[in-house]
Design goal:
alpha/beta, Rossmann fold, 6-stranded mixed β-sheet, 4-stranded antiparallel β-sheet, 10 strands
């Protein structure tokens, strides 16, 4: 059997301020397999974004461990964690964070450029992914010339250009109207299935969550799998 893409064991996160401490969550144990889509739901402040940050090696847990393809993240130094983030993890945030001075093509190519890949190769890959998200005719447009839905499609292409194994999406449709949001979510999950990726997507929309294979719900600092 192949290793799960991501495995969390006894994961916990506590924030401290002086003598005060706030436990966001504790004892989280779960795994996500290749090709699996998992929705993460819960009230604002429940810990959804914090969990995504930990799985993406942007924050460290207070307790427990995270393993990626069988290797624990806490065994890697910062340089190897940066490589993990760049090569194996795709991120899609509620705010697209596109660089306004660059074109759609240049924004999508950015993760590969940071890794030192040749410009021609980067642009070929970026153009392919823009075509796959339906923006093959918008490669030369800057973010200000794109609609909100188009900007999020560019962000999705940027997340996928490095061919990651895991996609982490934090309210990716939160800034979009219902119709556009559904279109973007369905497209995102379709691409994940086609590429056999694992995805963990935080969403407040129960209809969007139901499109995933499984649904995890945060309740009082613990995860419960919804039926």
């Amino acid at each position: 059997m192949p290793e799960p893409v991501i495995r969390a064991l006894g994961l916990g996160k506590t924030f401290r301020s002086g003598e005060q401490q706030l436990t966001i969550f504790s004892g989280l144990t779960f795994q996500i397999e290749p090709g699996e889509s998992v929705a993460l739901v819960g009230e604002s402040g429940a810990g959804k974004s914090t969990l995504l940050h930990i799985l993406g090696a942007l924050e460290k847990p207070t307790a427990g461990s995270v393993s990626f393809s069988g290797a624990r993240l806490d065994s890697r130094n910062e340089a190897r964690l940066a490589d993990y983030r760049n090569r194996h993890i795709g991120y899609v945030w509620q705010n697209c964070h596109l660089l306004p001075e660059f074109t759609a093509l240049e924004n999508v190519a950015m993760p590969m450029r940071i890794r030192g890949v040749a410009e021609r190769t980067c642009h070929q890959a970026a153009r392919k992914w823009l075509e796959r998200v339906g923006l093959g005719n918008r490669t030369g447009h800057q973010s200000g010339e794109l609609s909100g839905g188009e900007q999020q499609r560019v962000a999705i292409a940027r997340a996928l250009v490095s061919e990651p194994k895991l996609l982490l999406a934090d309210e990716p449709t939160g800034n979009l109207d219902e119709r556009t949001g559904e279109s973007v979510m369905r497209m995102l999950l379709k691409l994940v299935r086609e590429e056999n990726l694992a995805i963990l997507v935080a969403t407040h929309n129960p209809a969007f969550a139901s499109l995933c294979n499984r649904v995890f719900r945060f309740e009082h600092g613990r995860l419960r799998q919804s039926s």
